[in-house]
Design brief:
homotetramer; alpha/beta; two-stranded antiparallel sheet; 10 strands
Chain lengths: 387, 387, 387, 387
């Protein structure tokens, strides 16, 4: 088994992930800030292919142009030296107090305008650095109380914002697509577009829906108790999986951002199986936070673990799919039948077919076992390397 | 305060709600079966305007044509006598063992065909009885284990099914729309289209999306920890709130189906406020289960409570909106600003406006309080009748 | 209805509640620090009777003795001026990085010793300022991964710590009791003593169990989906409700610390009903965080709301209990029968009684309705002021 | 790796587990009833050592004495033939409508008396069949609404019931201990003694606490989002792990009762690690429900999977503990330090030690990494057989 990542694996990390200093709601930072240049070098050594950023990860909020240019130049040099790419970038619209009521849907119009300008500015930089995907996480687009946010009005504003951003990208001729990242809650009591489903639905109402897809995060869907592979499968089915955030979460609770493989291991297995069998060819992006208990050695161990776990699960999923016993079990569970249309004969054919209703014997059909337990045990055996 | 319902309130109940006999995963029935005729009369006496049904609520599964006709005839007479209408009907695709792996997405093709025919048959009856909405709850379209359901294939089958149903309705010239009802889990480990968002997104991929909307159920969204008024607001915003199921749920746990007003009372208040201010004019449909502890007196008390609570909340929400102090508080919280476009000046105007970025002072804007706590306390005062 | 609090209501607030500056996992502070003296004066004006503190709320971590004495002196003067009392104090064992793996159960022994000394020091101050209850919230006594914490060893250390603290209090002759505060998770993935039940059970293993009780926090229990009044009723039943933290939480998610009355309103009603009918005479302590969206006006509005809501609910609960219709409904639901022993006749009498088994007719007994829906509707009517 | 179970593994199953017919809240039975004799034989063939039962699993509710004796005799013969033992028995106090408001805490006193007599009767049979543990799951001891259950009174009744049962066991000279099984909710909205912690605390108030321990069920704790190994570790620490129910659950939702190994796999690994390293020598009892999709072949495959997964995890946990690299990692994470007392020098020594406070340097201690991520990755590698 190959557990050592190579660039062809397309593993990428956000600057803010390994760079998280460990400040949480109840405690101060436990680690020093990382220089983005240091991060790029370390990620390259570990076998990653890409690095991503929020504007403020690279250039401190409010920095003047000289500081900005210096930061960008140093970062670009590190990219050139290491060969790392920037497949994605995003905007920080949540740390500064000005965004305390959201950004594109803040009640204050001047905040909304500032948020748009901040985003447009970073889109320029993202494009300049080669990003093809721009992620939008509206983490503070929400509310803690009922009257504080008029949701239909807020959705109007959100649509307006995305339509403007898309217009900009088209007018500039940028080769950039947007990936909306859903989250149900935290840091707001409830966040708009709380799940992959809500984001997909919203995209259908935009002026240029083709420019928009989703960026599902494993833990965010699990915070709503949802099945992550199911949600991502629907995104794939709708042609909208533009990017994704891999991490770990132990059920319905605060946002944990554990390394990939921690948390719900079986969901991680099925997710890797889905991505690999569906031919998803985008980045495998890790959006995690090395626990606050770790020093920098622990940070890099955690980052390495994300990639190692993906590779182990990928190998196990491939072995599962290749196993003749599994193929038999899939047939026993009638998966091939699910792949067949229900009515190739059309509505008329279906209505005219007595075996579909008049002579159908539900008791007989209902007595058939589905053989799912045997299939699932084979899957578990493969996951555990015990087959 | 008027707490006595009248038909103009458009309250409706499913036969299966008051008719629930109290069979749960750990216990046998505690109540006798109700005759649908008795139910219609009792609901009319209580002030309801409508009654809804699954095919099998009215006509036992597998009944012959004579029994079927008798059942329909008696039901129709009860409707005629009482003046109750049938605004909605739906199909039972979950009780019989034949549906143990789902209906439209069962791995077994013959089960899928039977499910479609069963649904088509009941659409005829629904239309005959005057229903304008046909609800589809795919409660067993899901899985307990990862390989048991190929989700993209299952979504293909689900789309195929709904496209066929819509074709039938159009070909028959029926004035009937479909409302898809999402649920995250139970009775399956995970159910496809788990939330309002996923259902809305799915609808966008159908052949005749205009014929499809959603039927959100309060408790179903709350089982995923989601904010119900937010989800329903998005459905309204997308023009897709075709019907809804009102009930109560105490957080993330098994499906409780408590009477409306039980469970999360503040969410119920905001939901009524939303429906009434948005001008939703469809049925206020209760899909609840009177607890298993109750005898039939308790059943009817529970049904009456659903309507009473809606009326109380409606009055309280109206008083909240009409209160000048609330209007001041909404202004203080800048809700009117949220209703304004962010950039009537367009992208060019926004980019050219230095006050949007270059001279904008985030510290000043960030120091403004949003005044949400005062607003929310006013709302709570109104809810409690303590203002 | 009296909604204006007076000291006799025994409302108290932590310095850290109104003093929270709004730093959250995704954002910087939105409010300036409050001087404890300012807080004491404002709380007194609002009608509170008490103020509570962590050592570091009053005296910055690491402050020298002069700074310490000055801080204490100014605080004491404010207490004297306003008449506010200090019914409770506690230790901050979570903010500084040294506590990143916990305090009394940190793997590092020197950290554990430091944590004990820090606590002992603040116990002296607490006693000096008149506190009779010392709260212990072990927010970082936990883990994110399985091998990182040997739970039986950690419980040994936790017991050792509490036994030492109790020994100190006894040796010093302090009139002080400890109240352990449970929480299921956040900021650690899982926290030891996650619920009221676990803390109560743990107390039974201490050397001086009589000195220990619990300090349940509304939101903490709700983060585990538990019924708060039930848990607090068990604490009362076990004679262990030494203190409590009132606030609001919207279900199973991150720790929200909303003002009391926000979140699950019906649970708040039943909690007030329980406290008032059980004769709980300790402080009604609010441990909440005014949302980050608020400026200081919003902070004080939020604090005032906590007290107002308690008073409204108290009046509504009293009216509910006094209503003759409610008393009839309680009888109909056989609550008086629950208050009777099951077998005053003892085991022998029970075994000899044929009506208890041999001639008992379960079908007849099983057919009795419990009349709970009617009772609950009366409660809701009273809560809503609609009876 | 040995995956084939033998009696020495002490695997046991309830009659009601493999015998579950698949009736759920939304569907009818999908499988025929199993004869207990058939079950005993099949379990023996699969390698189990024990079988457990509710009274009504063996003898239908209300059966006359002849039917009872026949059933017991046939069951006993099957045990004799196969060598299977009955390590535990329990009472069905939830299926019949008479228990709709609970059993030992039903508001109706005659129901409580009947429940006690039903339990006493089955204790006789349990003892006769050799059981040494009697499980008490009070699944309906709870409520859906606030006033319906006076919790302190209900706890009085619960205590009264257990005290009577213990008196009986002592008077009869039975060698039998009770294990209370907690569950947070379902089938009641909230259940008394919702977690392991609450049950442990309650036991401390009984007349004969030594006769009582807990029977934690994996899925029940996970329904409250709790860490199962942590809760069971506390039960072990308090000397109260008398029995346990192994199964699988996918997070906070309805009670799934999946086979052991399904659901949260990492929690299952840590649980097996805990049981094996703590020297727990009781039965490894599976309380699961083969999914309703399965026929009887699937039922037995599911039962076999429970045991297979335990054995795989046991081997993996042993390899983890034996690995020198793990031992190094445990040292690096200072687990051995956690096993040392914090203050062997006693309170006086601690107070006199300047290194504990006066000269302690929190910044230095706070900068140490805990090395938990490396340790957890080693654990995951062992779990996956990828080390």
């Amino acid at each position: 088994m190959r557990c050592q990542p190579v660039p062809e694996d397309k593993f990428s990390f956000g600057l803010w992930t390994v760079g998280w200093q460990g400040r949480d709601p109840f405690g101060d930072a436990t680690r020093r800030a990382l220089d983005p240049v240091e991060t790029v070098h370390r990620l390259a050594e570990l076998g990653a292919y890409g690095v991503t950023f929020h504007d403020d990860d690279l250039i401190p909020f409010g920095a003047d142009d000289i500081r900005r240019e210096t930061a960008v130049k140093r970062f670009r040099q590190a990219l050139d030296t290491t060969g790392l790419v920037v497949p994605m970038a995003t905007t920080n619209l949540f740390t500064h107090p000005v965004f305390k009521d959201g950004a594109f849907t803040a009640n204050d119009r001047d905040v909304r305008r500032f948020a748009l300008r901040k985003t447009l500015r970073n889109i320029d930089l993202a494009t300049e650095l080669g990003a093809r995907t721009y992620v939008a996480w509206g983490g503070r687009e929400g509310a803690e109380s009922g009257a504080a946010k008029d949701v239909p009005a807020a959705l109007d504003r959100l649509k307006e914002a995305f339509d403007l951003l898309a217009q900009y990208v088209v007018e500039q001729g940028y080769d950039l697509r947007f990936a909306i990242e859903p989250k149900p809650n935290e840091p707001r009591g409830d966040i708009l577009l709380p799940t992959v489903g809500h984001a997909l639905a919203f995209i259908g109402r935009l002026e240029r829906p083709g420019l928009f897809g989703v960026n599902p995060e494993v833990g965010h869907e699990q915070m709503a108790g949802l099945n992550v592979p199911h949600g991502i499968a629907q995104a794939l089915w709708q042609g909208k999986l533009f990017h994704l955030d891999l991490n770990g979460q132990s059920g319905v609770k605060y946002d944990q951002d554990l390394r990939f493989g921690a948390g719900d291991l079986r969901a991680a297995f099925w997710l890797v199986d889905l991505l690999e069998t569906a031919g998803y060819d985008g980045p495998r992006h890790f959006d995690f936070k090395p626990p606050r208990t770790e020093d920098l050695d622990g940070v890099w161990a955690s980052a390495a673990g994300c990639m190692r776990n993906y590779l182990i699960l990928k190998e196990r999923a491939a072995a599962f799919r290749a196993d003749p016993a599994v193929q038999d079990a899939l047939r026993a569970a009638r998966l091939p039948e699910l792949a067949r249309p229900t009515a190739e004969d059309g509505l008329a054919g279906l209505l005219a077919d007595p075996t579909a209703y008049e002579t159908f014997r539900p008791e007989v059909a209902g007595a058939r076992g589905m053989a799912f337990e045997q299939l699932d045990q084979l899957a578990l055996d493969h996951l555990l390397g015990a087959s």
